[in-house]
Amino acid sequence: MKILAFETSCDDTAVAVIEDGTKVLSNVRISQSDHEAWGGVVPELAARLHAENWRRTYEQALETAKCSMQDIDAVAVTQGPGLQTSLLTGTTAATFLAHLYQKPLIPVHHIYGHICSSLLERKPSDIQFPVLVLTVSGGHTSMYVWKSFCEVELLGTTLDDAAGEAFDKTARMLGLGYPGGPIVSDRALKGNREQYDLPRIYLAKESLDFSFSGLKSAIFRLVEAEKDAHGVLSEQFVNDVCASFEKAVERIFHKKITRVLERFPDIQQVHFVGGVSANTYLRSSFETFLKKQGRALLRPKNFAYCTDNAAMIGAAAQCLYNQFGDRVFTASVSPLSRWDLSVFLQNLQSK
Question: What is the pLDDT of residue 178?
């Protein structure tokens, strides 16, 4: 089964062609560098650029996959959550093409797409349920137990900033630009991770939720104190703050993972997905940490599957079709900026 998939939930215009849920025939993404000057995503600008980019992204995806719309069996699209105006471009384009070429249309939850990114370029049998999934990006930081391909239970989520957002805000406070994740990670390689003992907010003893606002505030105070004392931020200061920040984030996740594994001892695999899963320091740290506990870490096979991409939406659509058949098909898709994953799956099960 070949699925043409669209992903436009934020600032990346992405289209992919996926075969049988795991084989990536094409995965095209156009990133919007225009937002860098503003230090973050501007919804109105993102929507305009999606409108300009979707057609050529779609055409390139088909060309790379060496197929036409006649070869496509279904069209999938991210329905939410995300920026309403960005989602609208993808849902409109997907609905238009599905009607034009008389193809089934499959709406997909963005987070479920990230969860299914582990399937890309892997065999379904490589997934050993139940799985602890960490979905970590600029827009979300959550932990799920993935019990079967279409059964997911939320364990904890951020109460304020997402981890990726904390990376972006740290970079902004240090004058490093946007997006902050890759820049902070690069500067951290040159810094001392033990230089600053930044707060690690674990919340209540048994809590599986996250909070990064205290960490962000501590960095703000540290930066302001350095400016007051020296007028400027030295290269070494910036490097050390980035390194210490990554260390604090690492410790927070180690603590939360430990709590989950104590509560669910039958979990043997932990999947690290979302934009922050491209962070090489955290990937290596989690792998070493879990190996000591006799567990395995799986992350997307390709860095391109970590950030928002359409390949994961195609993989998710295939999973949904395998489980629910034509119950996943719809005549049209309207964007949902807020959308609970459990509600999405429960609605399918009740159809």
Answer: 83
Inform me whether the pLDDT recorded for 298 exceeds 80. Answer: yes
pLDDT of residue 183: 95
Average pLDDT over residues 29-43: 63
For the chain, what is the HEC assignment?
A: CEEEEEECCCCEEEEEEEECCCEEEEEEEEECHHHHHHCCCCHHHHHHHHHHHHHHHHHHHHHHHCCCHHHCCEEEEEEECCCHHHHHHHHHHHHHHHHHCCCCEEEEEHHHHHHHHHHCCCCHHHCCCCEEEEEECCCCEEEEEEEECCEEEEEEEECCCCHHHHHHHHHHHCCCCCCHHHHHHHHHCCCCCCCCCCCCCCCCCCCCCECCHHHHHHHHHHHHHHHHHHCCCCHHHHHHHHHHHHHHHHHHHHHHHHHHHHHCCCCCEEEEECHHHHCHHHHHHHHHHHHHCCCEEECCCCHHHCCCCCHHHHHHHHHHHHHHHHHHCECCCCCCCCCCHHHHHHHHHCC
Q: Considering the entire predicted model, what is its pTM?
A: 0.94
CA–CA distance, 224 with 173 (Å, rounded to integer): 9
Q: Who has greater pLDDT, 110 or 178? A: 110
Write down all domains in the chain, each with its CATH number in brackets.
2-117+308-350 (3.30.420.40), 124-300 (3.30.420.40)
90, two tokens: 């993808």
